[in-house]
């Protein structure tokens, strides 16, 4: 009888997985509505709706540099109905936060990388330097007098700024803000000197000649008209400098393999959606098409990024409690 009962339970479980998803899925975004990650998540939600055949609800669970939303997913039922879209902060949080309520990547199932986005080193409009060589000399001469803005601890601009200082072997004065908008406002107004910001946010200001552009943080130049004359930092002397903001899709640890397989398959289909690709490219983003779409390779990538950034953050000594 126990054997028969076991077969019945196994069959019921298999049927449940086969029918997944049979209700709406919640996509948690650990950042505020209207920001880059929120925009990416909402576009992805629409593209995932087609292969999954269900509504995808976006839930902005904000706070503590993205760790509140991430913790929410880590504690969620491992049934595939609560997912997380997070950026590079997934890999940097373990080094930035002394008290983190979850482990990366141990408390998550990796489903695949979504995209990558380079940043641009930009400066206030009155800065005397007109190219990166001149900027580098100016930074060397002024050191800690140079103010470099960021959108807050753990933000893309903060991390890029740390990596830039590490590559230049110098220390500037970091000026954290509560978001990209106020940081950009003060940069335009000349209250701070520099910022290393995602291209999607920097390009409109460059086009309007409100800030100066000094270098792209990826290994390849960008084809965007506003940056056609801007070299990569690697080309400009910081060999192999490559800092890109990436986004990935995650589920709680213990989510059943059949469910994970369906979610990964849906992600692969979504990232081939012409409308999604068009929207990503308009934001200066590149949809991932390489081996990091595979959950195992996605996990390896997160581990490598975690180790890479731990060294940079430790050297900078910038932590949160």
Helices and strands, with pairings:
Elements (H helix, E strand, L loop, with lengths): L1 H18 L5 E5 L6 H17 L3 E5 L6 H8 L7 E5 L2 H8 L11 E16 L8 H11 L4 E4 L5 H13 L4 E4 L3 H10 L4 E5 H9 L4 E5 L27 E9 L4 H14 L3 H9 L3 E2 L7 H22 L5
Parallel strand pairs: 1-2, 1-3, 5-6, 5-7
Antiparallel strand pairs: 3-9, 4-7, 4-8, 4-9, 4-10
Helix pairs in contact: 2-9, 2-10, 4-11, 6-11
Walk me through what this model shows:
This protein has 321 residues and is α/β, with parallel strands linked by helices. The chain is built from eleven helices and ten strands. It starts with a helix and ends in a 5-residue tail after the last helix. Helix 6 links the parallel strand 5 and strand 6 (173-176). The protein is 43% helix and 19% strand. The chain folds into two domains: 17-117 and 245-316, D-Maltodextrin-Binding Protein, domain 2 (3-Layer(aba) Sandwich); 118-227, Periplasmic binding protein-like II (D-Maltodextrin-Binding Protein, domain 2). Strands 1, 2, 3, 4, 5, 6, 7, 8, 9 and 10 form a ten-stranded mixed β-sheet that branches.
């Amino acid at each position: 009888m126990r054997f028969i009962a076991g077969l019945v339970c196994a069959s019921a479980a298999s049927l449940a997985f086969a029918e997944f998803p049979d209700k709406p899925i919640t996509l948690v975004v650990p950042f505020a509505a209207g920001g880059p990650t929120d925009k990416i998540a909402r576009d992805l939600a629409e593209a995932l709706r087609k292969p999954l055949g269900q509504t995808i609800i976006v839930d902005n669970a904000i706070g503590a540099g993205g760790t509140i939303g991430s913790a929410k997913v880590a504690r969620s039922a491992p049934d595939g109905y609560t997912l997380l879209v997070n950026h590079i902060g997934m890999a940097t949080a373990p080094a930035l936060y002394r008290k983190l309520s979850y482990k990366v990547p141990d408390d998550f199932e990796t489903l695949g990388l979504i995209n990558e986005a380079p940043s641009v080193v930009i400066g206030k409009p009155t800065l005397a330097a007109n190219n990166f060589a001149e900027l580098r000399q100016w930074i060397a001469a002024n050191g800690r007098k140079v103010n470099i803005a960021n959108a807050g601890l753990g933000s893309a601009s903060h991390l890029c700024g740390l990596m830039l200082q590490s590559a230049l072997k110098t220390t500037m004065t970091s000026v954290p803000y509560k978001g990209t908008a106020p940081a950009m406002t003060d940069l335009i107004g000349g209250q701070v000197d520099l910022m290393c910001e995602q291209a999607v946010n920097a390009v409109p200001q460059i086009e309007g000649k409100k800030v100066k552009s000094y270098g792209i943080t990826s290994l390849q130049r960008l084809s965007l008209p506003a940056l056609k004359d801007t070299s990569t930092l690697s080309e400009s002397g910081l060999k192999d400098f490559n800092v890109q903001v990436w986004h990935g899709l995650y589920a709680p640890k213990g989510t059943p393999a059949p469910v994970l397989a369906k979610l990964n398959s849906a992600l692969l289909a979504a990232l081939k959606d012409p409308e999604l690709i068009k929207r990503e490219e308009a934001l200066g983003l590149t949809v991932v098409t390489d081996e990091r779409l595979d959950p195992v390779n996605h996990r390896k990538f997160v581990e490598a990024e975690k180790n890479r950034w731990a060294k940079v953050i430790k050297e900078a000594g910038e932590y949160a409690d």
